[in-house]
Each structure stands twice: as structure tokens, then as C-alpha cells.
Design brief:
Layout (H helix, E strand, L loop, with lengths): L6 E4 L5 E3 H10 L1 H12 L13 E12 L6 E7 L4 H13 L6 E5 L2 E4 L11 E2 L14 E6 L5 E15 L7 E7 L16 E3 L2 H4 L3 H5 E2 L1 H4 L9 E3 L14
The chain binds zinc ion (ZN) (4 copies).
One zinc ion binds next to α6.
Amino acid sequence: MKKAILKGKCSYCLSTFSQNMIETHLLSCKSRQDFFKEATTSSSKTTGNKRKKVDEVTYYLLEITSAEYPEYWLYIDLSEDLTLHNLDSFLRDTWLECCGHLSSFIVMEETYESQIDRLISNDSKSMRIKLKELLLEKDMNIGYMYDYGSSTLLNIKVVSSHRVITTKNRSKLIKISARNDDIDYKCFSCKKEKATEICTICICEKAGGRKQSSFCKSCSSEHECGEEMTSPIVNSPRSGICGYTG
Ligand SMILES: [Zn+2]
Ligand SMILES: [Zn+2]
Ligand SMILES: [Zn+2]
Ligand SMILES: [Zn+2]
């Protein structure tokens, strides 16, 4: 079987690229550069007494990949003034939140947990630490876990950082720069129709992972685990886990 080429879209210029080209693209995307440059040059437009405050902010470009299902990936641009807690919330909103599970980051062998009053380890720290205090560098890897039971693990890599002089208050900037397109799974039963449902039991118990757990609407109604155990397929590595429906 031919391996499908997985694609995704740059949210600045809206062009589509294959997964192995998207990083190169983002680093040279004109629309992305303009987005940050505009922040730099807008100070020249202000006249008279209305002088705006000028800030210098470092932005990071992070690559975020599902450890188990690397076909799910995100690139995000974010400000150094945000905390790990902000990043955690963003990941939950975009990809993960089902029922408020605990989560943690591992940065330079230190563990940062979402709920400091329920720390798993005494050595862990709070997520309320700004990214700039973590001294992130290019190619640094950060581990992330959502839910200590039915875990979703993410690998986070610092792709680049750049310092911008800005008059816009973008200290809270966090945005998706690129994201994988919807992934088409064929129904594992009929091998014909596009799968729209995922079995929440099969995904946890069968080695075949997503491919063997995905079914079309009509096959899911006859699926041995029961139709009520299926969830709609969504564009997230958490799809089908703990009833996550986006
Ligand atoms: Zn682009
Ligand atoms: Zn849950
Ligand atoms: Zn089917
Ligand atoms: Zn099943």
C-alpha cells in the first residue's frame, strides 16, 4: 500500500505543504514575516504626543507532535511572556481537553505539573513559570503528558526564536502557525467508506491503533463493541480516547 503523504496548512499564507516541508516553509513564509514585521514598523505611523510604548518581545516557534501518532502535529508561535500554564491551556483547548485531567511538562529534567496541590512528585514545580525563565533554546525538547491514566503524550521542540521590537501589545500572543489537515481513515470493516467513527474500546485495546478502530457510520452500528462505544473522529491525537470529541 502506498504511504499517504500527510499534509497541513500554513495559517499565515494558507498554503498547503507536506509534513516534511512545513518547517522550512514557516521559517521563510513571507506572510508570517509580515505578521511580525508589521508589529515592528507600526511605530512610525504614530505622530504627535500619541507615542506608543515600545516593547521587545521574543517569540518562539514550537513544533508539537503526538508521540504515539506523529501524523498529528501543530506549529505554534508564542510569546516568551506566557507561562507553561498558558501553553497547557492552549493545548487542552486545541487538542486534548476531555474531563480536566492532570498534565505535566518536562523541561531540562524538571517536571512542571498543572495542579500544584496534587503534585505527583515532591520535586515537581508549578506551571506558572514564564517561558522566558525556562531559557528555551533552539532544538530543545520538552515532554508533555495530558492525563496520567489514558495518557496523550506530546513531543515539543523549539524550532526557532526571534526577538521583535513591537508597539503592539503582543505579550500574550499564542497562535497556531500550521496544523495537519484532517486525516482520512478508511473504514476497517468494509474497507470502502470513509471512517467517521472511532471505537473507544478498540483504540485502547488493539495493537492496530487508529486504522483498526475506525469505522464508517453504517459499520459502526454493527460493531462488536457496541455503537454507543464509538465517538466521532476529530482532528486530534486524543480522538477516541476517554470520549474526546473535540
Ligand atoms: Zn505560509
Ligand atoms: Zn477524560
Ligand atoms: Zn464501513
Ligand atoms: Zn471496538
